[in-house]
Input
Amino acid sequence: MGYELIPTVWNFFVVLNWTFWIGLVVFIATRKKWSWVVRGSILGAIAVFFIFWVFVPLHEEKVLKDEKRVYGQAAYDYFHKKCAEDSGRFVYKPVLEPQDSVYMMKPRKAATREELQDQFWLGDPYGASSTDMTGKHALLKESISGEDGTKIPALNFFETHDFENPDKLWRYSLKPTGRMIAGRTSEAPKVPEIEPGRDLIEFIQSRYGYSWDDLSTREDRQYWVAKSRLQIVDLITKEVIAERIDYVIEDGFGSTENFRSTPWISTGIGDTRWKTNYCPPNNSSTDYRWILSVLNNVQFGKE
Output
């Protein structure tokens, strides 16, 4: 209710302000006791005030808005051109047998607030919201449906080297916590709670691994466009069996207004912007659902 009154109150003060200035001009112009020189000087001073303190700022604001509009149109034209050139999901060699694990060859660290505000940050904005371990656990917790409705199972485990100590190799899998939690319905009995846990291992057992690279050019980032690549590799033959080439455009162009404290993530929030600002479209956990579809040789579902 309070927010709804703000425009009304603001409009009231705008009308009151203009009424005051118009009334002042009429008052001065009709003061016959004052000479025309005095009245002209005062009215001239008021005119100068409006020119330099009202109309000039308004003109500069209009010019700035026009520049932003032209820049925004050029940025989206550039983004759409790049998307049409080479973006997409490509499978070069199908996986013949469903896999139960994957090796993270180049784990993506969670981006910092400063990085997500940096126009030229050489990270992966396409997957910035899912680069922490919670996002990676989607490989274990989620399953997806192929285009024919086939359910694609999640993995039993994934393997990755330690961020801080690359000599350590971890295997992550779902483990019971020892607690019981409510079932999916009020009548259902409680079930054991499971959460991702890890074990220290010596050797990689996964047949396939995945990695990512930032492919952005300086020109890309000048338009707040980022390009990255996600590849799935056969660890035995070293072949790239599948890859996704993707682009994202930051539609606020770095603005931190209206609670956009992390622009590279904020660009995909709300409505269908996960479709319009990303190519291919990037909805929740898209990276991991695509990886699961490749490792199970199932057609990736339409967004």
